[in-house]
Design goal:
343 residues; alpha+beta; Immunoglobulin-like; Cytochrome Bc1 Complex, Chain D, domain 2; 3 domains; 5-stranded mixed beta sheet; 8 helices; 41% helix; binds dinuclear copper ion
Length: 343
């Protein structure tokens, strides 16, 4: 009996210490969405149960090792124990009930997180290798996700290529983004600040760079930003270079092609590309080692048929081969005009 009391007290002490220790190291970032509160509540309950289970296993194990160890000179066999039905039924029923309660609480929390709010603002999210873009109700597309504090938002998300996963750790919710199907994520931001959206599904070479800024601000700051974007988009649409730049943003070109001469390691930079000499490692239309001038025809061909001429130092089959059908001829001309402008 004395051993049960001592072990029982030790289990309680170790449970509390483990729980307090895990809480003290802040396993979770700040709670920046209304959805993060019920999720963290569930998380804390699970951490408490895990702490208790850890103590329930470790205390009897270590206590037995020390207190019931073989003494010097003891050559006898251990006591032979046949099963104990009461114990086995107990340790089946209690975990079963615990898991059922957790399943109920998990379902309830999921209901909270997925609850439809008719006042939610709809923002369309496009994921592609390896970039996020956000299309707002006003019609423009940005690489930044701007949200208003306490304004529920629903993200209608779709991928143009492989499976990605939209995740802002401070909002807690993570949702896969699939090609050919719209998935949604509901967020109500509750904390003003700047966060980073990440991709949580291994999606290729640039996966770890697939991030986007998320800015939660007041309604006033948001309106100012929206008006600025709308005005800039209207002005840019007047010229081929401006339209080309918008198309580049909408199609995610700059996630692989830099426009400032920096190296992404994935694809050649566009800065100074026009009319420069390009050394090729091969391709379906040229021999290895050929040098060509990056004129309009070369740029257009490389957009529509990227395998035709492979730039030395880069891989084939990285650039999508779909732009010949997804873009019109005049859109391709606008993009080429934009590339030409990057001297
Ligand atoms: Cu997209 Cu990982």
């Amino acid at each position: 009996m004395r051993h049960y009391v001592i072990a029982g007290v030790l289990v309680i002490v170790l449970s509390v210490a483990t729980y307090a220790g895990l809480m003290a190291i802040h396993l979770m970032p700040v709670e920046a969405s209304a959805q993060s509160i019920p999720i963290d509540h569930l998380w804390n309950i699970e951490i408490a149960i895990i702490s208790f289970l850890f103590a329930l296993i470790m205390v009897p194990l270590i206590y037995s090792l020390i207190v019931f160890r073989r003494r010097k000179g003891d050559k006898s066999d251990g006591e032979y124990i046949v099963g104990n039905n009461t114990l086995e039924i107990t340790w089946t029923i209690i975990p079963l009930i615990t898991v059922l309660i957790l399943a109920y609480m998990g379902t309830y929390t999921l209901g909270d997180v997925l609850a439809v709010d008719p006042s939610a603002l709809v923002i369309n999210v496009t994921a592609r290798q390896w970039e996020w873009s956000f299309t707002y109700p006003e019609g423009f597309t940005s690489k930044e996700l701007h949200l208003v504090i306490n304004q529920p938002v629903v993200l209608d998300m779709q991928s143009t290529d492989v499976i990605h996963s939209f995740w802002v750790p401070q909002f807690r919710i993570k949702q896969d983004v699939l090609p050919g199907r719209i998935t949604t994520e509901r967020i109500t931001p509750i904390l003003i600040g700047s966060y980073t959206a990440m991709c949580a599904q291994l999606c290729g070479t640039g996966h770890s760079y697939m991030t986007a800024p998320v800015i939660v601000s007041t309604q006033t700051d948001y309106d100012v930003w929206i008006q600025g974007q709308v005005a800039a988009a209207a002005a840019a649409a007047q010229t081929p270079v401006g339209r080309g730049q918008q198309l580049v943003a909408q199609n995610g070109c700059t996630s692989c092609h830099s426009v400032d001469g920096s190296s992404t390691g994935i694809a050649p930079t566009w800065k100074g590309l026009y009319q420069s000499k390009v050394k090729l490692s091969g391709g379906t239309t040229v021999a290895p080692g050929t040098v060509v001038t990056a004129d309009q025809a070369y740029l257009m061909e490389s957009i529509v048929n990227p395998s035709a001429k492979i730039v030395n130092g880069f891989q084939d089959n990285v650039m999508p081969k779909t732009f010949g059908t997804s873009l019109t001829q005049s859109q391709i001309s606008d993009i080429v005009a934009y590339i030409e402008s990057l001297k």
